[in-house]
Amino acid sequence: MTDETLTDVTVIGGGPVGMFTAFYSAMRNLSVQLVDSLPELGGQVAALYPEKPIHDIAGFVSGTGAELIANLKRQIDSFGDKIGVHTNEEVTGLERLDDGTFILRTAAREIHTRSVIVAIGSGAFSPRPLAIDYDREQLDGRKVFYFVKRLADFKGKTVAVAGGGDAAIDWALELEQIADKVVLIHRRDNFRALESSVTRLKESTVAILTPYKFTTVAGTPDGLHIELAKIKSDEVLDLDVDALLVNYGFTSDNHVLRDWGLPVKRGDLQVNEYLETDVPGIYGVGDAVNYPGKVKLISAGFGEVPRAVNHLAEQLYPDRKQPLHS
Questions:
Q1: For this protein, what does the record note about how its cofactor is bound (predicted)?
Q2: What contacts 301, CB < 8 A, 6 or more positions away?
Q3: What's this model's pTM, rounded to 2 decimal places?
Q4: Any idea where the domains of the chain sit in the sequence?
């Protein structure tokens, strides 16, 4: 299907930053199309961390990923007449026309747009697995987990958490409230997480095992048997748990940016102070972009959105003045 209407801006990516981009564009009275390859809006937050607390958004106190996405959906719905949402549609082509406008292609449609804002985050993602052999087919999703959809599934259980970053510590602290016992396993004595979270961890009932590496993970009738080896030591430790939650981060792939002919360096879209690429009319926000001083947080991505949208609005409609506040 070809959309004969010329849209002011098309947002590629339906995670939190992409959703806010669509909303803020509508706030500037721009016509918007929002396209995402996943079946539902929300990106990684909705797909992987719906019950994880979100800490870095001002005024959003003790809220979960699911609550954040629900709030962003309500914002979009308030401008339903200006925002077209297309989920489960991957952008397979991006072409700049001679008049400076663009054609975006998906399997379902072509979108004719005056500008594009890329908000695809880190692109396609997959969890980093345990660096040992174990029966993934039988254990993954049953006793070994790489993300949490429902905290209640771990109620009353003994849970081991692998990792030393923010996600691992956050999940350990959340699980502490409902699990019978939580053990955090990390291969280093130091943690790569917010200092306040590390302080809370050390003050909690979570058992901390450092520095240990996994040598064996095997299923048992009642759960899992884990063998650990202490780093630079002959010490070996055996653990029996009900479940193991692995938080080693994710590998990502933004190859589609190159496929679209956009300027990419080390996997990130290169942008200027207005979040515009070297291709006039194409912008990037959120984790998909890089520039000096870039911070990859949801809150930082939210802050980039007004810069990008206000600049492109001025380019499209020079007579419009940038708002002083919203």
A1: Binds 1 FAD per subunit.
A2: 16, 17, 20, 119, 285, 286, 287
A3: 0.82
A4: 2-125+250-316, 129-246
Annotated binding-site positions? 36, 44, 49, 91, 125, 287
Bind-site residues for FAD: 36, 44, 49, 91, 125, 287
Q: Which residues of 92-102 are buried (b: 16+ CB within 10 A; e: fewer)?
A: eebebeeeebb
- 243 with 157: CB under 8 angstroms? yes
- The top-level CATH class assigned to 129-246 is alpha beta
pLDDT tens digits for the chain (326 residues)? 445 689 999 999 999 999 999 999 999 999 999 999 989 999 888 887 888 888 889 998 878 999 999 999 999 999 988 999 999 999 999 999 999 999 999 999 999 999 999 999 877 667 889 989 999 999 999 999 998 888 999 999 999 999 999 889 999 999 999 999 999 999 999 999 889 999 999 999 999 999 999 999 999 999 999 999 999 999 999 999 999 999 998 776 677 888 888 888 888 899 999 999 999 999 999 999 999 999 999 999 999 999 999 999 999 999 877 766 66
Domains 2-125+250-316 and 129-246 share a fold: yes
CATH number of 2-125+250-316: 3.50.50.60
